[in-house]
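Researcher: Re-running this chain for the archive, since the previous output was lost when a drive failed. Same request as before.
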Amino acid sequence: MTDKTGAPEILADGDPSDRANYPQNVAVSWPNRQTVEFVRQTNCRSIAEIGIFKGHTSLEFARFLNGQGELHLYDYDDRVRHVADSLGRAGFSNVRPFGCSYKLLDSYNWSLAKTIETHDRPIYDYMFIDGAHSWAVDALTTFLADRLLVVGGYVDFDDYEWSFEVSPSLNPAVFPLTAKLYTAEQIAAQQVKMIVNLIVRRDPRYREIVPNKIFQKIA
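Model: Regenerated structure tokens:
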């Protein structure tokens, strides 16, 4: 899992610093077991992981594919290159990195747009969205994912009930920048839930497979 806001830290003088310094303990250090267990029941061969952190789930995706198809990684450039290189050294040559910079308004959404630009049809069987967890970033991510997901494919959302307010690392009392970036309503809101409920559940082209998490595109 990558950082939850995709925002820079603000120094005392108000200038943005490198986003690589964003709190690292907002990220887990193990694969998403529910995702891994589900994908093993499928025949998916083209997987996109959006938000990878250190690649724990990426490794499980690569093991599942076992050299077949492709695994595409979307996150900051240094992260995707490091994980892709590590997986390559482990013998997985079917992994491709799609990195973005640490610029304030850059994100994996730009990389997804470039992927759409270079393909005239959907290409992914499975898309795992575990990135910013904010409406500002991942509402657009969900729209772009729909353009890249084949009919019959799956979109998988992590952390349905997560919010900045309950985060031990990003609640405003611990990380004051959160209060500079979001309103009190937005800090309390479960923004992944908003994306799922307002965008995906209202789309008749999707059916819910795993409650609050995995949806299949049926048309």
